[in-house]
Amino acid sequence: MKRSARCGKRSPSASRSSKRRRREAAWALAFLAPSLAGLAVFVLAPFVETVRRSFTNALGTRWMGLANYRSVLSNAAFRLAAANTARFLACCLPLLLGLSLLLALLVRARRGRGGVFQTTFLLPMAVPVSAIVLLWRVLFDANGLANGLLVSLGAQPVDFLGTDAAFWVLVATYLWKNAGYDMILWLAGLDAISRDLYDAAAADGAGTWQQFRYITLPGLAPTAGVVGLLSLINTFKVFREAYLVAGRYPHESMYLLQHLFNNWFLSLDMGRLTAAAVLLVLALLAVLLPARRLWRLEERT
User: So what's the pLDDT on residue 114?
Assistant: First the structure.
């Protein structure tokens, strides 16, 4: 009986360890409390209200059921903006991830001179939006530099902002502005891969491509998730340049969801605006949650 009672008691060291963990958890919660409060007030509460308003009228006073969602899905402008946004994401994300990774590998190959290239590729991030708008007009106006070059080569001038070419101008702007930022992220991922793995592979006779395929790519799997997520977020920031250059109603090839949301907000069409925002969140979750599972599986393997 004494032995069993003694076994049922916790040792003093275990008790002290448990108290220390509880104390550390309390301190951590105290430090996180301001951030959690701000997140709840400025992010979670507005999102909950957005979901509620998507089922009500514009004033939020009368229950409408799924009427707002049906109105959004049957709206021609929404279908055009959603298709353009999906096309923009499908074009930009693979191009940006591949281009920025290539730049990171080239910078790494330059060794000592890589710092100069890093600074050069990061310069577009320091350019203000107003300067980018001016650059757009200088390059892609009807009498701009791009058309001047085409005419000098004997080609016909192109209305870059009034035809389907506007979409590719938007894609090029996104790549130019974000490639340097993603390159830095890839470089951080490359630094995390042990050099000993490459030395061992080279000693076993592995070539450059084999090292890249079996060491670099698997080692960059965690970084790829972060780079992909940040690149996805940055795609929604390209609206600023398009809006300042072409206004509320640009050429239909680059009429994105951001344009539509802005127009609905200006007209106070809150029912359709909130319903479209909820649909956008659901679409992003449908893409990000499976991708998150895939990244975790790659990290484990």
Answer: 57
Whether the CB-CB separation of 58 and 258 falls below 8 Å is answered with no
**Residue 67 burial (CB < 10 Å; 0-12/13-18/19+)?**
middle
Residue 56's DSSP bridge partners are 63
Does 120 or 234 have the greater pLDDT score? 234
Q: Which of 40, 52, 48 is nearest to 270 (CA)?
A: 52
Q: Which residues contact 294 (CB under 8 A, 6 or more apart)?
A: none
pLDDT > 90: percent of the chain: 12
Structure tokens at 165: 């070419």
30-55 per-position pLDDT tens digit = 888 888 898 888 888 988 988 898 89
- Mean pLDDT for all residues in the chain: 83
| Structural contact between residues 136 and 173, judged by C-beta atoms closer than 8 angstroms | yes
Give the angle subtended at the CA of 153 by the CAs of 147 and 155, to the nearest 5°: 65
Nearest CA to 109 out of 189, 190, 175, 181 is that of 190
Q: Do residues 259 and 243 touch, judged by C-beta distance below 8 A?
A: yes
Cross-strand pairs, 63: 56
Measured CA to CA, the distance from residue 233 to residue 210 in angstroms comes to 33
For residue 210, give both structure tokens: 């084999």
Confidence tier at 9 by pLDDT (50, 70, 90): low
Which pLDDT score, from 0 to 100, does residue 116 have?
67
Backbone phi, then psi, for 75, in 5-degree steps? -85, 125
Q: How many CA atoms lie within 13 A of 83 on its CB side?
A: 9
Does residue 160 contact residue 136 with C-beta atoms inside 8 Å?
A: no
